[in-house]
Amino acid sequence: MLERKLRDSNHIKIFDTTLRDGDQSPRPEGFKPQQFTFQDKVDIAAMLKKLGVDTIETGFPSSSPANFEAVSEIARIVHGPTIACLSGAVLADIDTSWRAIEPAKDIGGARLHIVLGTSPTHMYYKLEMTEDEVIAAIAKSVKRAREYTDDVEFSPEDASRSDFEFMMRAILTAVDNGATTINIPDTVGYAMPWEYGPRLGEAKRRVDNYIGKDQVVISAHCHDDLGLATANTLAAVYAGIRQVEVTINGIGERAGNTPLEEVVQAIHYRPDIYQANGRPLFTIINPNYLKETSQLVETRSGLVVQRNKAHVGANAFAHTSGYHQQGIVKHRETYEWMDPKTVGQESSFAISAQSGRAGMDSRARQLGFDTSDVEVSKGIRTKVKNYADETERAVTDTELEKIIADFKGETLINRFVLGEVEMHEVDHTSRSKITIFIDGKPHEVEEKGNGLIDAAVHAIKNATGLNIDIANYAGMSLEEGSNAKSGCTLTVKNEIKITSYAEDESVPLAAIKAYIAAVNTIDRSEQRKRCQ
Ligand code: KIV
Ligand code: ZN
């Protein structure tokens, strides 16, 4: 019997294709490497396992020896998830794929995934095959894959632009020959949710009628050309399918694939919508690792996550408007109904000309100030607003501290003062030599790092004994021309997050200045809190 029963029919299986479809994303110009390296793939696969994905699609082994090596290493060392890889409907490719993933067969499982186009456009122009030839190739290739493993997935490529009856003929041919998962891709991001959901729902109904209920898993795979990848994937889940193919941060061909984080969180947070048999649908993803996984993929791919990206973007839980900040201070769920901590994020208030007193007071409290006196709070608010209007930027914590201290007549004393800073690259290694005055006494330290800023931060940590990391930074040139002055906004992470801004002749120098300013603010905030 060609069966692979779902353990719990409410389990939505997460098939992650970051390392295959995601790796097909062009990287920014000048970013190296333009594809994941062997080590990137191994590290990301280990992280995906921690995150709890059911299946990792690791690559396309017949595309290059490097691809083959990375896929087989993951199959050897990543134990837990099913290890999948993609092949065309060509016997030699399937043989190569199997050699790559075979080590996983007795561990988490090894899946062969075969793709062949079924839309008129793909068959006629790309494949130059007739319908009967396509059907014959599906039968032959799925059968070959089944000789190796009982876990075989078939995808009729460009399914959403395929004639429905022909797509079903292709699917049932694959099922007849042993396919255990049928993935129905919206390859070019063409479908509308109210077409895609019913198409997959009807395909599931027909496959269930043909071979028995839930004997074959039906899967959704969407691209974001019309910005509908998440909507289409969720429409398919709503229609009854049980596997979703997704990538971290939604990276993938052209406009990308469905972002894993969006689908997983929608299913988790809306059990009233996503349910079956009177129970919620569920995934086994641990959302606590979503931000960390997103950052790993961002760093290794060079594909920067937009600030307003749901769940994992820097602004996903940042609030600016005074009304919103006030709402949150009174009752978090007014504007923050999902807990940022569950995805490894934190809630934050941006202090700008649009913010009100509630947000500002809450940030002031974090800095150890008491602004409970309404008149004091109003006075500071006016100063903050004027400053934000003048600089046309959000007010950072180090600036807010200065405004409040000035208002209250307090002098800010810096325990840590930067002296000379030298930064250079020698033999591809970044080094930084800094002099730092601590309580007036000079300390000279030299350190290496992963880039100039990292080397300088190591040196400062070494001199101060404080283990304060930069969570993120953004540098920008402030003028035109190659010798333009630079500005840098950064966030450091201690017990609380502190934002800071500085300007200098280069981004690394501005970043180090901003970093020291943040360290001093943390030091003074801790002192203030101790005295309360
Ligand atoms: O988008 C697509 O059709 C694919 C297939 C290989 C599933 O990536
Ligand atoms: Zn795809």
Describe the structure using short key phrases.
532 residues, alpha/beta, TIM Barrel, Double Stranded RNA Binding Domain, 3 domains, eight-stranded parallel β-barrel, three-stranded antiparallel beta sheet, 20% strand, binds 3-methyl-2-oxobutanoic acid, binds zinc ion
| Rounded Rg | 27 Å
Bound small molecules, by name, code or SMILES, are: 3-methyl-2-oxobutanoic acid, zinc ion
Helicity, as a percent range:
40-55%
Overall number of strands: 18
CATH class of the largest domain: Alpha Beta
Task: Indicate the mean pLDDT.
Answer: 94
How much of the residues is beta strand, in percent? 15-25%
* Uncertain ranges: 1-5
The second-level CATH architecture of the largest domain is: Alpha-Beta Barrel
Major β-sheet annotation: 8 strands, parallel, barrel
Strand order of the largest sheet: 1-2-3-4-5-6-7-8
Number of domains: 3
Q: Based on helices, strands and strand pairing, what is the structural class?
A: alpha/beta
SS element count, helices? 16
**CATH superfamily of the largest domain, please?**
Aldolase class I
How is the topology of this model organized?
Layout: E1 13-16, H1 38-51, E2 55-57, H2 65-77, E3 82-88, H3 91-101, E4 110-117, H4 120-127, H5 131-148, E5 152-157, H6 164-176, E6 181-186, H7 193-211, E7 217-222, H8 229-238, E8 243-246, H9 260-269, E9 275-276, E10 279-280, H10 290-301, E11 318-319, H11 322-330, E12 348-349, H12 357-366, H13 374-391, H14 397-408, E13 416-426, E14 429-438, E15 441-449, H15 452-464, E16 469-477, E17 486-493, E18 497-504, H16 507-531
Parallel strand pairs: 1-2, 1-8, 2-3, 3-4, 4-5, 5-6, 6-7, 7-8, 11-12
Antiparallel strand pairs: 9-10, 13-14, 14-15, 16-17, 17-18
Helix pairs in contact: 1-2, 1-10, 2-3, 3-5, 5-6, 6-7, 7-8, 11-12, 13-14, 15-16
